[in-house]
Amino acid sequence: MKPKIVFFDCDGVLISGNAWYRLHRTMGITDSLDKEWAAEYSSGKLTHAQWTQNVVNHYKNNKLTRKIFEDILDAKNFLFNKEAGKLIDSIKAQGIDVAIISSGIDYYVKEVAEHFGIEKWRCNAFFDFDEKGNFTNIRFITDDHLAKNIEIKDICKKLNINPEETFYIGDSANDIRAFEFTKHGILYLTDFEDPWRKVNSDLIKSAWKKVNNLEEVIDIIKTNKKEEN
Questions:
Q1: 140 in Cβ contact with 147 (< 8 Å)
Q2: What pTM value is reported for the model?
Q3: Which of 9, 36, 42, 166 is most exposed by smallest CB count within 10 Å?
């Protein structure tokens, strides 16, 4: 099957590392505190809203400003994936659409989209600042584990296509639902360092294909096109 559109996760796929991790560490949220909040959320002790409020309070206490925020998330601080660039060029040359589906922050996801010439992009987090440039709040569209499928569904509806006519490329456990939703999840076994990446048995089981290099997806598209014919 030739996909109608290929969806890309952002962190760890299009860029190295994790922007949230970079922001948290710069603002003094430790690894142990991150793990504590994540565990409490997973066990049901914290709702997504409560977890978000913990982060908001910490950022406020540590005086996050717009300037600090933009300096941390400036595109120059990230390594763009050359494999992704070659794959995206190939996909576009075949007349296939591309989009970014990220649970990240609008500020840097937009920069990543512009770098790769991707017009369609979605994120889940938005930061607010007051007139003096002081941080005030984080807005989420919805809980992270739900956001990606909502955005995929919305784009597919606008393009009048079925989610199963798409490919989704991701690298971590938060991509499982997108893998299952599209039924064409491609697990990118990247070497990019990301302390938050979770590759578990459920992720591996949910993946339709696995690649070590994004350029392998070019052959996957060609192979499925031949099978369709």
A1: yes
A2: 0.93
A3: 42
